[in-house]
Write a structure and sequence with these properties.
Layout lengths: L2 H34 L2 H12 L6 E5 L4 H4 L4 H7 L2 E10 L3 H15 L4 E8 L2 E10 L2 E10 L3 E11 L1 H9 L2 H12 L8 E4 L1
Antiparallel strand pairs: 1-2, 1-7, 2-6, 3-4, 4-5, 5-6
């Protein structure tokens, strides 16, 4: 093979390798973009997939009713006043396989886009508070609890002060808040998209 032929052959191989790398990079970039934007959709997907399950309580509080629950505590008033979307779901978790499944689902929702600010594991039991930040604000708060009998998540979307959120997580106020939502906004409350089967 002549020297010119060798150069052409090497250039052809280089070009094919470069095209292959560009294709792989493009596919990886699209995958990362989809993954990074999927947390809110994952909450939507989980909520919509499980709200009709047996023995599930699902509450989505409309904007105009948020003021009613802001009276629980001054800290909660500060959080609720900046909330755009508030959901609570409680579901049975009485078997090991079901608890493992729910724990994996919640880990998948938070993934890499949330920051865990509190976690307590006791075998399969979980108490986790995760947030998603943008600049100096917390944009999403996800509280997941599972005691091997019942699982629940409490989800806030809005603009929140990080110091207030961390203090509330430390004092377990979010856990108490979930119970208060059930008490104040049960399935019989009109105007709330809730189901209790």
């Amino acid at each position: 093979m002549t020297l010119f032929g060798m150069h052409v052959f090497n250039f052809t191989i280089f070009r094919e390798n470069t095209i292959t790398m560009i294709k792989k990079f493009s596919i990886l970039s699209v995958f990362l973009l989809i993954t990074s934007c999927s947390s809110y959709n994952s909450i939507d997907s989980f909520y919509n997939a499980h709200k009709n399950d047996n023995q599930v309580t699902a509450i989505r509080v409309p904007q105009f009713m948020l003021t009613m629950i802001s009276e629980i505590s001054p800290e909660m008033k500060a959080v609720v006043g900046n909330t755009k979307d508030l959901r609570y779901m409680q579901f049975p978790s009485t078997t090991t396989s079901r608890t493992q499944f729910l724990n994996q689902q919640m880990n998948g929702i938070t993934g890499n886009s949330f920051i865990e600010i509190f976690r307590k594991n006791d075998e399969l039991k979980r108490n986790v508070v995760s947030v998603r930040e943008r600049k100096n604000l917390v944009k999403e708060i996800l509280i997941y609890n599972n005691n091997n009998q019942t699982g629940s998540f409490l989800y806030f979307n809005g603009d929140f002060d990080p110091a207030t959120v961390r203090e509330m997580a430390k004092n377990e106020q979010f856990t108490k808040f979930g119970d208060n939502i059930i008490n104040q906004f049960g399935a019989s409350t009109p105007g709330i998209n809730s189901q209790n089967k």
